[in-house]
Amino acid sequence: MSSVLDRIVETTREDVKRRRKQTPAAELEAMLASREDRPFSEALSRPGVSLIAEHKRRSPSAGPIREGGEIDAIVQAYEAGGAAALSILTEERNFGGSLADLRSARAACGLPILRKDFIVDPYQVIESAAAGADAILLIVAALEPKWLERLYTEARAVDLDILVEVHDEEELECALEVVDADVIGINNRNLGDFTVDIQRTFELLSDIPAGKTVVAESGFHTRQQIEELERVGIDAVLIGEALMRSEDLEAATRVLTGTDADEPEL
Prior knowledge:
- The protein is α/β, with parallel strands linked by helices and about 270 residues long.
- It has one domain: Aldolase class I (TIM Barrel, Alpha-Beta Barrel), CATH 3.20.20.70.
- It has twelve helices and ten strands.
- It has an eight-stranded parallel beta barrel with strand order 1-4-5-6-7-8-9-10, surrounded by seven helices.
- Strand 8, helix 9 and strand 9 form a beta-alpha-beta unit.
- The two termini are about 30 Å apart.
- The mean pLDDT is about 95.
């Protein structure tokens, strides 16, 4: 793992220990009986390229993106603009997110929600489901194969969908061999230095077996790029920074989903 990713994973483990003391897993498990299912994977399989619109306040690479703003209004704008699903950053120290953001988004709209975080502990799986997530992100670069398998299995057990994120050929091979991932995210961002190369999506796509749902992540911000993704067979695209920086969130979302012919500045 990269030093940056190492640092984030280490602080995540510290935060998980703190939260487990505050709220034991048994308390979270008791909340699952009333959980409403919003299938995340199904939302990505409709015709065309489905948009996963992300709520992200800041990042280690971009710094502040949109620190203010009510999350309710933001996710409602995404929904009105035609997004198929949401991605909610819940990592606090580096991205300014929280589980409270996820719960607010869940209450404010009807879209399925991906919890975007560094999931490294089974507690986080239960925590995600209890907070209202419909899917979690598992980053192959952050997990040993045995932990990838365990967390994937634990997520399935509580009816969470899983987006398994890869960045290179070795990580893709792991995702396919260890868990035979149904939904694969290709992250164009190198988690070592946070540089972005969108060609990574096109290079890795040919190595993914038919029948998998493929999500392109990082570096996309125009309708033209999304149309190119559709031509090569990508199922969904995850866009955060470009949307969060836009003045009119609904209009920007409509442009990306192809429901508005006029393209505003993003």
